[in-house]
Structures are given as C-alpha cells and as structure tokens.
Input
Amino acid sequence: MLKDTFNRTHDYLRISLTDACNFRCVYCMPNEQMKFMPAKHLMQANEIESIVKTLVDLGVKKIRLTGGEPLVRKDAKDIIERISKFPVELTLTTNAALVDDFIEVFHQAGIRSVNVSLDTLKRDKFLELTKRDLFDKVWKNIQLLIEEGFHLKVNVVVMKGINDNEILDFIEWTKNQPVHVRFIEFMPFDKNQWNSSKVFSFQEVLNLIETQYSYIKIKDEANATAKKYKPLNHEGTFAVISTMSAPFCHNCNRMRLTADGKMKNCLFSKGEADILSVLRNQEDITPIIKKCVGQKEKALGGQFEGDFHQIDTNKIDNRSMIRIGG
Output
C-alpha cells in the first residue's frame, strides 16, 4: 500500500499514453506547432505493462488512460488489452474522435466508463476551441457510447467569456440522456493563457444553474474530485471539479505517469520521478515510486494555496497539460 506523509492512500493511477493529440485545445496545448516526444522517449507497451504490474502489487486498484489523446497511439489497442489483464478498474479519457474504432476493444477489456472531453455543444465554437472541424464525428461517437451502454462522463473546462454561456445547455442535455456532465474550473499550466479572470468558479456554476433548474446533492464517492448533483426529473447528472476555488487535496489518492515515464505525485507537482529510466536500467522501481509518493505536498503541489485570484503564474513550475496527461 502506498501512503504519503499525510496518511493518504494512493491507489488510483493515471497513465498518459502519449503527448500527441488530434485536437489543439488552447487550455491544453501552448500552440499549434507543438513538437511531440519521439517514440523512443515514450514508454513502450511492455514497459507500461511492467510498471503497472509493480503498481498493482503496491495496491493500485484503478487506472485511467489519458493523453494527449490516448487513442491516437498506434499500439493503443495492445496497451488496453495488456492492462485489462490486471485486477483493476480500467477507464480512459478521450476526445471521442476515434471511439468508433475502439468500441469492441473497450468491451473486451471490461471498460464500463468513459470520460469524453467536450467544451461546447456548438459546431462553430468547437472548431474555434479545438482547431478541428470534427464536432459531428465526436457527437456521433458520444451517442454510440451511450447506445453501447457505457457510463458516460462529459468533461467541460469552463472558461469565463468563452463557454460559460453554455452551462445551462449542458444541463438541458442531461434531461433526456444519461450523461454525467462535469464542469471543470480552468486551471493554470505552462503557457495555457490562464488568468484568474477566466475562472468560472464552483459557486458561480451552481448559482447559474439554480436560475433554471432544481437539483439535489448526490453523495460523492470516497476520494472524489467532483461534487455531484442531480437535476430533478433528469436522466443524467452534473458535477463540478473545483480545483481552484475549493480544492479537494485532503483525500487525494491519485498518482500520474507521464508518457515519457515520469511519475508525478500531484497534477501541480514540481518534481518528477524518472520511473522509466530506472526500469530500463533493469533496476527495481518500487523504491522510487514509494519515495515519490512520500514526497507529496499537502495541497496543490505546494505551488499555490488560498485565493486563486492571487496566483502568480510566473512562479508556477510545471509542464503544459498536454505534457502531463489529462
């Protein structure tokens, strides 16, 4: 079992398969001309399998595959199949553009829940935000996931003045379909043009929804990042991930593995543990994993705390979101 100095048990691993993506979302990528990691720098399928085996032996019970866009990786199906053999809850986060090619793979791997990143329900704004004219394809694949019986969570990064005027549209979507919309507060990463004025906070989301809908609070799971609610007489639900205005670090159980094999004990951690190099040197990776978890800060990677309006992004030392993994 992996515990940090604050007695938090870490049993949830997020693995980035690649920093490459077929979209160019502004809050994730610094610019359109990003250069992605050479293949030799990425964890190979057998290396991912080996690292996962060690972490499962250390108590990991849930694994989420992320990117970039995890499904653009050529051996994504092989990786999913390898990880599915372990006794873990396996899931992934995707932009859904390639989902139709993976439905059977998901079923065979025992994947029951899929997170889809979708920041707008408008075709023109989708093109503006992602730089890709693929809204119809994404929407069709979202409907396919629902038809195939997957538990569908929709991740919406809310940015004031950009898509906050669509919050009520997302709530309306939950009326007749079993979608679980999660509004995510805009977070600061390297060169992602963050500033506090763009953050549409947890309370602002609730205040807006209350103008049109009645809802009840749903009990959150242990170690949950999202505060969940149920609009009355709706098939679906909504939630808010309040990283900036109401952090949930006190019960964090998450670790992250970047596509190049670096372990981060927090989304905002400065330090990284080079798991892949240790593995390639044919050394035991257990000590470095335990050391990394043991060095976890109390909250937000030790980089900021308190009022998010006071954050100085010039003092934050971190990768861009695409380099970390969603």
About this structure: Residues 12-324 form a domain with the TIM Barrel fold (CATH 3.20.20.70). The chain has one domain: 12-324. The radius of gyration is 19 Å.
